[in-house]
Design brief:
The protein is an alpha+beta fold. It is built from 16 helices and 7 strands. 43% of the residues lie in helices and 14% in strands. Strands 1, 2, 3, 4, 5, 6 and 7 form a 7-stranded mixed sheet that branches. It binds a DNA duplex (11 and 11 nucleotides) through helix 3, helix 4, helix 7, helix 9 and helix 10.
DNA sequence: AAGACGGGGGT
DNA sequence: ACCCCAGTCTT
């Protein structure tokens, strides 16, 4: 589509485009705590948090995180456990693990200063092409164009690009166009303006072309009845649905939690032990066998304390939380996962996956939280039946 | 090139 | 119910 691209790429039109975009950004940008004074550390943290995560979700996490870890040195001193706890609920926990490693490297190799050049910043864990360009342009004013999901969408429509943006050739083309349009000397503003435009005006569905400052430059607007068909979206597979049994295993006034391995899903987080069951009808038996096999403990499985539905990107899960009582064994995980007996009220000191948090909240609401050892079996069974009140679509 | 990796909000 | 997000890393 060279001819399409050329339509906009003459210097006077590019200048007009830049002026319109920057003028719009000046008056329409949203308030964000990391804007204003470009502290490289603040920019770095915000950009990591903003990976695949919306501004409004990041905001409260960012404020708490910066209060807790105000500098690279503070972050470098922190344990992974502290950082994961601060990250709890935001997802993509590899970001927190990479932040922990990167902070250590920045303190040790760069005297606590975020690198200001592509070669050094790009090798830090968790910093890919987008984040490198974002930090370098916003914090250091370097002329590096960013290409994120917003920019891909804006450019696809602006230039009527119909290729799959996931393809290598399309990525190259996007990068070249962003580079060509970039306002030299104001790269940070330009990049943020493009992203802000994509996030608030040139949205995936029902873009506000009437409110767009650069609609007169937009080829999709001119040539298509509906610009929102771009960028070309590829067909998605449907997600499988799994049933997971988790045991809230009581031993006196303690309950058992197990830490997930560092790599993989929800890496480094704590959870109630259990696993995926093929047979939804035989969850209790599965759970008893599963904890025997993985942890070497004997349990008695009681009633369902709470049931939670939870959607991940690539699968869906119904999490069944069972009231269990301990009946012997050492609680040593066969794969070496750390096991810990904690008091129920101490769970807030550990980072849990969202689904397990909701399990805990549901148990507390229904007064089905694990009872002190003094409670008899009859007292427990006298309580209300399985709680499914937080189970959407059930 | 494709898949793994969370969670929330918009439509 | 489905879409997709201020992406990165691994295979």
């Amino acid at each position: 589509m060279v001819s399409n691209v050329d339509t906009l790429l003459d210097s006077s039109r590019i200048e007009a485009f830049r002026s319109a975009l920057l003028a719009w950004y000046e008056t329409h940008q949203r308030e964000m705590p990391w804007r204003g004074s470009p502290d490289p550390y603040a920019v770095w943290i915000s950009e990591i948090m903003l990976q695949q995560t919306r501004v409004d979700q990041v905001r409260p996490y960012y404020d708490r995180f910066m209060k807790r870890f105000p500098t690279v040195e503070a972050l470098g001193m922190a344990s992974l456990e502290e950082i994961l706890k601060a990250w709890e609920g935001m997802g993509y926990y590899a970001r927190a693990r990479n932040l922990h490693r990167a902070a250590g490297q920045i303190v040790e190799r760069h005297e606590g200063k975020i690198p200001d050049n592509p070669a050094q910043i790009s090798v830090l864990p968790g910093i890919g092409p987008y984040t490198a360009a974002a930090v370098l342009s916003i914090a250091y004013g370097r002329d590096c164009p960013v290409v994120d999901g917003n920019v891909v969408r804006v450019l696809s429509r602006l230039f009527h690009l119909t290729d799959d943006p996931a393809a290598a050739a399309a990525k190259k083309q996007m990068a070249a166009l962003a580079e060509r349009l970039l306002v030299t000397g104001r790269a940070g503003d330009f990049n943020q303006a493009m992203m802000e435009l994509g996030a608030t005006v040139c949205t995936p569905r029902q873009p506000d072309c009437g409110g767009c400052p650069v609609s007169s430059f937009c080829l999709a607007r001119r040539e298509l009845p509906d610009p929102s068909v771009l960028p070309r979206k590829q067909p998605r597979k449907q997600r499988p649905h799994h049933h997971v049994a988790a045991g809230i295993v009581r031993r006196g006034d303690k309950i058992l939690i197990v830490r997930r391995p560092m790599d993989g899903l929800l890496g480094g987080l704590w959870e109630f032990p259990g696993g995926k069951s093929e047979d939804e009808a035989a969850m209790e038996e599965f759970l008893r066998n599963d904890l025997k096999r993985k942890l070497g403990i004997e349990i008695r499985v009681g009633r369902v304390l709470a049931t939670v539905r939870h959607a991940f990107t690539h699968f869906e899960m119904t999490l069944h939380g069972y009231d269990c009582t301990y009946h012997g064994g050492e609680a040593r995980h066969r794969d070496g996962n750390e096991c810990r007996w904690i008091r129920f009220e101490d769970y807030e000191q550990y980072a849990f996956p969202r689904a397990h948090i909701r399990l805990i909240e549901t148990m507390k609401e229904s007064e089905g939280s694990p009872q002190p050892a003094s409670a008899t079996q009859s007292e427990l069974s006298a309580q209300s039946g399985p709680s499914t009140k937080n189970l959407p679509n059930a």
